[in-house]
C-alpha cells in the first residue's frame, strides 16, 4: 500500500466486513470465502461512505439531543413526582391529625352527653321532689284556708237560739287548728 492509499473497513448489517483500498477499483467481501470481486469506482464508494458517515453523525447528534430532552423530561417528572409524594405525605399527616381531632371531639361530645344525661336525671329527680313538695304545700295551703274559713265564718261563732248549746267554734275547741299544726310538724 502506498502512502496515498488507505484501506477502509466497513462492517455491514449482516455482519460481513467490506475492505476497500482507495487506490483499488475492487471491493472484497472478506467474510464470504469465494466471493467474486466487484469492480467499482472508488470515489463513488468513498462518497457513499462519507455520506453515510455524515448521516450517522447527524443521527447521533439528533439522538443525543432527543436523549437529553428525555432525560430532562424524566428529571422534571421525577421532581414533580417527589413534590406529589411530599404533598401526599402532608395530606396524610393532616388527615391523621384531623381524625385525631375528630376522635377527641367525639369523646368530648360523649362526655357532654353523659353529663347532660346525669344533669337531666338530677333535674328530673329534683323536679319530682319539688313537684311533690309543691303538691304537699298546695294541700297544706288548702287545709289552712279551710281552717281559716271555718274560724272566719261568723255563723260558726253564733250560739244556737234554742236551749243550751255551744257554737261550732267552742265545740271544736281548736281541734282543726291542732290537726293542721300536727300535719305541718310531721312534714318538717
TrEMBL record:
Phylogenetic lineage: Bacteria, Bacillati, Bacillota, Bacilli, Bacillales
Region annotated Disordered, chain positions: 162-188
The protein, known as: Uncharacterized protein
Domain of life: Bacteria
Sorted UniProt keywords: Coiled coil
Coiled coil (UniProt feature): 46-129
Keyword Coiled coil: yes
Basic and acidic residues bias (residue ranges): 170-188
Source species: Paenibacillus odorifer
Amino acid at each position: 500500500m502506498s502512502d496515498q492509499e488507505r484501506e477502509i473497513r466497513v462492517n455491514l448489517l449482516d455482519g460481513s466486513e467490506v475492505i476497500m483500498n482507495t487506490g483499488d477499483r475492487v471491493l472484497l467481501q472478506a467474510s464470504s470465502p469465494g466471493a467474486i470481486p466487484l469492480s467499482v469506482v472508488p470515489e463513488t464508494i468513498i462518497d457513499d461512505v462519507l455520506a453515510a458517515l455524515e448521516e450517522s453523525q447527524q443521527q447521533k447528534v439528533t439522538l443525543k439531543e432527543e436523549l437529553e430532552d428525555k432525560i430532562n423530561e424524566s428529571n422534571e417528572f421525577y421532581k414533580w413526582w417527589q413534590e406529589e409524594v411530599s404533598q401526599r405525605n402532608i395530606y396524610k399527616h393532616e388527615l391523621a391529625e384531623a381524625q385525631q381531632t375528630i376522635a377527641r371531639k367525639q369523646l368530648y361530645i360523649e362526655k357532654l352527653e353523659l353529663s347532660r344525661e346525669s344533669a337531666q336525671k338530677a333535674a328530673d329527680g329534683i323536679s319530682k321532689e319539688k313537684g311533690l313538695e309543691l303538691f304537699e304545700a298546695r294541700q297544706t295551703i288548702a287545709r289552712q284556708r279551710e281552717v281559716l274559713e271555718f274560724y272566719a265564718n261568723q255563723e260558726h261563732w253564733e250560739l244556737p237560739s234554742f236551749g243550751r248549746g255551744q257554737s261550732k267554734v267552742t265545740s271544736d275547741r281548736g281541734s282543726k287548728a291542732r290537726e293542721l299544726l300536727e300535719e305541718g310538724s310531721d312534714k318538717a
